[in-house]
Design goal:
Helix content is 79%, strand content 0%. With 308 residues, the chain is mainly alpha-helical. The chain has one domain. Helix 4 packs parallel to helix 8. The chain is globular, with a radius of gyration of 19 Å.
């Protein structure tokens, strides 16, 4: 395949999303390859996974340096996900094209992404109500600083196994599916810690799946090279933004990417996806301003509140 600059430009944008939110690689890259660049689905999955195996360590290094990674969680996730990802590739190949199976997985994942996006908004609202109660003297002060996270080995291991199988079969889920589970198991993790932990655990997971696709998939060097030229600087920039940005901004970006990924997994047309996302960009901030005013806060958050 001849080197493709438009493809590299698209990969740069997706790389920023991956570095900023820890997700969106497979859920965005694969649809872009298939829908906009007419790449065959199996080739798109294979090349996307190999590119991700090289791209994700770039963002991981940034988060490791900034201390936004819980290595205990990474260990238990990888124990389950690495062998499961390789097995997922073999399962997909044993099912032939496996179009029906993959369609079911994609639909289930899309529903999970939508629920997770809604969960992020609910979490933000609950946090706002808690701040209002503290301000009015109706509740104890909220804990400050980085809370201690107690690792839950067995549930974390099971998340790794499930995520690994899904990633091996579809290339989707190394960020989106696992980050949802981390949010549920460890609700006290900050947004930047969710992103950092997820990016680091995804490195060996995606490498395992990529190796399987190199051996059994339809990997194309030219296509992958075009992806890497764009996504490596993109993910580096996104990771720096994530490690420095207030938690509220990262959560909003997470919710937006979750919604966009879910729409594409549900095969919503590009036109309707764009219209929905544009409506969200315009309406969501206005609605949130109204909610803040009703609870006695300024319409726009400043200082500490912007980081919550």
């Amino acid at each position: 395949m001849i080197f493709d600059w438009p493809l590299s430009a698209a990969a740069f944008g997706i790389g920023i999303v991956v570095g900023l939110t820890g997700m969106g690689g497979g859920a965005l890259m694969t649809p872009v390859l298939v829908l906009l660049f007419d790449v065959l689905p199996l080739t798109a999955v294979s090349s996307d996974l190999v590119a991700s195996a090289i791209m994700k360590p770039v963002g991981s290094v940034v988060h490791l340096r900034r201390g936004t990674v819980h290595l205990g969680l990474v260990k238990w996730l990888c124990i389950g996900s690495v062998p499961a990802a390789f097995a997922g590739v073999i399962i997909a190949r044993s099912l032939g094209r496996g179009e029906h199976v993959q369609a079911v997985i994609r639909t289930a994942l899309a529903i999970a992404l939508l629920l997770s996006a809604a969960g992020l908004m609910v979490r933000a609202y609950v946090r706002l109500v808690e701040h209002a109660r503290v301000r009015d003297g109706r509740a104890a002060p909220l804990p400050q600083g980085r809370p201690r996270v107690e690792v839950r080995p067995l549930p974390t291991l099971m998340v790794g196994i499930l995520g690994g199988i899904v990633v091996g079969m579809t290339s989707v889920g190394s960020g989106s599916l696992i980050i949802i589970a981390l949010m549920a198991l460890y609700p006290h993790l900050k947004a930047s810690e969710l992103v950092g932990t997820d990016l680091v655990q995804a490195v060996p997971l995606v490498m395992s799946a990529a190796l399987g696709h190199i051996l059994f998939g339809d990997f194309q060097l030219g296509l992958t090279t075009s992806l890497l030229v764009g996504c490596i600087p993109g993910v580096w920039l996104g990771a720096h933004l994530s490690a420095r940005a207030p938690g509220g901004i990262v959560r909003r970006a997470l919710a937006f990417v979750l919604l966009a990924s879910a729409l594409k997994l549900l095969d919503v047309s590009n036109r309707h996806t764009g219209m929905i996302l544009l409506a969200v960009v315009i309406m969501a901030p206005l609605v949130w301003m109204v909610v803040r005013r009703r609870h006695g806060f300024p319409a726009i958050a400043f200082g500490r509140m912007a980081e919550e």
